[in-house]
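Exam prep: given the inputs below (a chain plus uridine-diphosphate-N-acetylglucosamine), describe the expected output before reading on.
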Amino acid sequence: MDKILIRGNGALNGTIPISGAKNAALPLMIASLLTSEPLVLENLPRLADVEALKSILSNHGVDYQVKGKRAGDDGMSGRVVEFQATEIVDTLAPYDLVRKMRASFWVIGPLLARAGEAKVSLPGGCAIGTRPIDLFLDSLAALGTELDIDAGYVNARAPAGGLRGGHYTFPKVSVGATHVMLMAASLANGETVIENAAREPEVVDLATCLNKMGADISGAGTPTITIKGVTSLHGATHRVLPDRIETGTFAACVAMTGGDVFLKNAQASLLQEALDVLEKTGVEVESGNDGIHIRRTGGDLQPVDFSTDPFPGFPTDLQAQYMALLTRANGTSHVTETIFENRFMHVQELARLGADISIDGQTATVRGVKRLSGAPVMATDLRASMSLVIAGLVADGVTEVNRVYHLDRGFELLEEKLSAVGADIERVSD
Ligand code: UD1
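Solution:
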């Protein structure tokens, strides 16, 4: 199994290109199930999750073809890939495929909308809490879907004549369930209104793409989304938006080491709250049209308190990385996790590197230390893995991050991007 070795190597300087967003790419790929015509996605990141979803989708009848790289490719940019589901050949999403990635459960929406039925295994995914599916089931029921759960599978059937528009208020914000409703309701008969919808940029990206495919969606990015059902969708070309989590993660790397790095293609508006937290630690953030400069030229990092929240709040997917940063702050910070109930697994691994963190319920108290020291550590989930890399960038000695497959799920060309700005990081195979 691969591991990553990091040796603390001082400030980072240069340019890191930001990839297309994994969390936008996945629902966009799934949206290709809604039409028999080609959906061309530009700036698609090369990630294990994207590859896994390709094989899941091909099981349902989606062919894909790499069309090339975009113009001006710097060797670190995403690809152009065409997805086409001429026919839905299978409405079963089996356990073996779905358990690897929770997002593959989302095929339930387009399969129901286009084929009238779906049998989808209950999901797996990162071990960051129980992550139930009640919101998916309740919202799909509001479109007339008949649902039952049997032997680890959700059996879903649209009424005769297809899904019906409906009204659904989410009791809790869910990104995935909002994606599924957008896709399902796009082909329903009549109008659907979703309240307390997720406002994440990836939801807006999906709605924009669906509208290019002929859907009639308004209000994406606000809590109330209205979808007027249409009878069919057609092909389109869409560029995946930049990855705000990758942006925030590399920003935390530079904040940790000091230096001056330009995050090319990054968009500040996608992660303003996280950038504000970074500025409070004493880091300079300068955003422009084509990217964001992150600078720290001296002085201690300052402690800061923050709490995760649905967008536009601080993203839960950056919580671990910013906690790693605060382990070296000059004072005590408090980090509260409100989205997932078990998302502090990185704490015990950070402690192995010398961090001083205690947990009380949903809040972690992080007491800044003067020094971290390298040690073997275990990646526990996708984003938490990066907190160990960030700590390793300033730790004395060698930090050895095991279970690197977590990182490969969501960070494109990680070692290449960090090495290019001066980090001492390498991948080794056992
Ligand atoms: C997506 C992101 C993930 C991010 C999360 C929150 C992708 C591929 N993944 O995950 O990286 O951390 O949003 O921003 O885009 N919940 C229920 N019942 C449900 C569904 C969700 O209780 O039926 C709960 C979850 O357990 C969690 C909260 O709602 O506590 C938010 O989850 P949700 O927004 O659905 O996360 P995902 O879409 O799975």
